[in-house]
Amino acid sequence: MKKIILSIVLIISVLSCKGPGSGPLAKESFEKKEQKTEPQGHSGVVKAVKASVTVNPCQGCIKIADLISNKKSYSGKSVKVTGAVTKFNSGIMGKNWVHIQDGSESHGEIDLTITTDGYAELGKIVTFEGTISLDKDFGYGYFYKIIMEDGKLIE
Questions:
Q1: Which fold has domain 64-153?
Q2: Fewest CB atoms less than 10 Å from the CB: which of 31, 75, 88, 95?
Q3: Alpha carbon separation from 122 to 9, 34, 42, 99 (Å, rounded)
């Protein structure tokens, strides 16, 4: 009796199937659809909010505005920067992400993002040394025109 009922249910399911992409287990349609590469609600641009800070560069350091305005000449090179920590996110993609500002500005850009193993407290003045990378795309809309990677916290 169980086999008969199971057979009837199976036959009804097959006959009522509306084709590929239908049914409770279908995850996506077989029709081509435009794929989104960004999560819902993310603009795709990493924007900084200007902090009211003025930080003088340390000896051997470069101002953030100078770094931004001459970024091609610093690409792939190690530099030192000093700034106030305006944002800190830990443990993302195995790194801590620090945003610093020194009060300088170039073409509307005010912020330098740094990936590091170190910890930086919000509002503190810090100095980092690391390699500059340009046009870095981490996916999901996180694109940086300029970023310091593997920054070492000096102060």
A1: OB fold (Dihydrolipoamide Acetyltransferase, E2P) (2.40.50)
A2: 31
A3: 62, 40, 24, 9
